[in-house]
Design brief:
It is a peripheral membrane protein. The protein is α/β, with parallel strands linked by helices. The protein is built from twelve helices and 17 strands. It has two domains: about 220 residues, 3-Layer(aba) Sandwich (Rossmann fold); about 70 residues, Rossmann fold (3-Layer(aba) Sandwich), CATH 3.40.50.800. The chain has a six-stranded mixed sheet with strand order 6-7-8-3-9-10, sandwiched between helices. The protein has a five-stranded mixed sheet with strand order 14-13-15-16-17, covered by helices on one side. A four-stranded antiparallel sheet has the order 2-1-4-5, with helices on one face. The structure holds adenosine-5'-triphosphate. The site of adenosine-5'-triphosphate has 11 residues, from strand 2 and helix 1.
């Protein structure tokens, strides 16, 4: 199911004042896609997810689900449409993992409803998909942050809704688990046509896994840029995303890197495009040293890159050959 946001304004209404976090958001979260929402701390990602989940009233505009305004669905209907995984620790922690996942079946069984065999199977399948079968009898209160996060994802899967919203689902996870979780959510969206929308600070992972990326900038008004990661790279949106914050997007490598003013440029020759050449360039950037393969007299130093060596050539000095990047950079920096 597509979710369309039309002139959506989000924020907080207090008794005497209103804090607008973002205005005029116009975008569509598409079914069958993994959409990742990126933005600096405090830009309003959680506020948007809470608004989409109907936990927080919107300030203005509309949220249209499958062609119908979100308000036109009853609470019961919404529970069968949308599942939400938030970052807060669940309050009911005396439960076992299985009982927590079973809560995902509540829209079908009711709070005190008995689980049918079919529900039990769905719960087992959800636990298996997330890889937590081994901890299913443990108390949720005894779990690590990462384990608990996986349980909450399993609960959302057990809810079997066409739309899943997740607020920073990869936050507490180790790197392989982050990748696994993203792969799982991508698979869920692609294989079952679900609409999966999540916020994350794992930008590089999102750029590799997401079908569509939403970049939420800090200025509040018309501050959402959306598109495929590659389109956002091409139109300069990714580059300007961190502008002025010491990080820049390298469109050649497709990764973000720390942006420091270059202190020195070194001439490189030989196997400059080999993996060794790329790794050497990466290491030198750590010391704000850039490289060029054009012969430039101002460079002074040349490094000749071989298959397993690096030869440093300085004017009026003896050539020196090193056999590791660490030795080479130590000799240069
Ligand atoms: N209950 C509230 N009342 C007023 N302002 C709030 C409330 N909750 C959050 N805010 C403010 O709304 C803005 C957006 O907050 P939000 O938590 O949505 O950002 P975020 O992008 O999710 O940040 P982070 O990456 O740090 O999780 C922030 O300025 C925050 O201080």
């Amino acid at each position: 199911m597509n979710v369309e946001l039309t002139n959506l304004s989000i924020g907080y209404r207090h008794r005497h004042s209103t804090k607008t976090v973002s205005e005029n958001i116009c975008a569509t979260i598409r079914k069958g896609e993994l959409t990742c929402l990126l933005g600096q701390n405090g830009t309003g990602k959680s506020t948007l997810l809470r608004t989409l989940s109907y936990f927080l009233p919107r300030l203005d505009g509309d949220i249209i689900i499958n062609g119908h305004a979100i308000d036109s669905y009853s609470e019961h209907e919404r529970a069968r449409l949308i599942s939400v995984v938030l970052t807060e620790k669940p309050e009911v922690t005396n439960m076992t993992v299985r009982e927590m996942i079973a809560m995902g079946r509540m829209p079908y069984t009711g709070f005190w409803g008995r689980l049918k065999n079919e529900d039990e199977e769905i719960i087992d399948k959800a636990a298996e998909m997330v890889g937590i079968t081994g901890i299913i009898t443990r108390k949720v209160s005894s779990l690590s942050d990462g384990e608990r996060q996986k349980v909450m994802i399993a609960k959302a899967l057990a809810q079997q809704t066409p739309i899943i919203y997740l607020d920073e689902p990869t936050a507490f996870l180790d790197y392989p688990s982050k990748v696994e979780t993203m792969e799982l959510l991508q698979r869920v969206s692609h294989d079952t046509e679900k609409t999966v929308f999540l916020s994350t600070h794992d930008i590089e992972l999102a750029l590799q896994m997401a079908d569509t990326v939403w970049l939420m900038n800090a200025n509040g008004k018309n501050n959402m840029h959306t598109g495929s990661p590659e389109d956002l790279a091409l139109d300069g949106s990714l580059e300007s995303f961190f502008a002025g914050r010491g990080v820049c997007f390298d469109s050649d490598t497709g990764i973000f890197r720390i942006n420091r003013p270059t202190t020195q440029t070194i001439h490189i020759t030989g196997m400059t495009d080999s993996t060794a050449g790329k790794m050497l360039r990466k290491a030198l950037r750590r010391y704000a040293i850039e490289t060029t393969d054009r012969d430039n007299e101002q460079c002074g130093i040349t490094i000749d890159i071989g298959s397993n060596y690096f030869t440093v050539i300085r004017p009026n000095a003896e050539k020196k050959t090193y056999f590791s990047i660490a030795e080479t950079t130590r000799a240069i920096k």
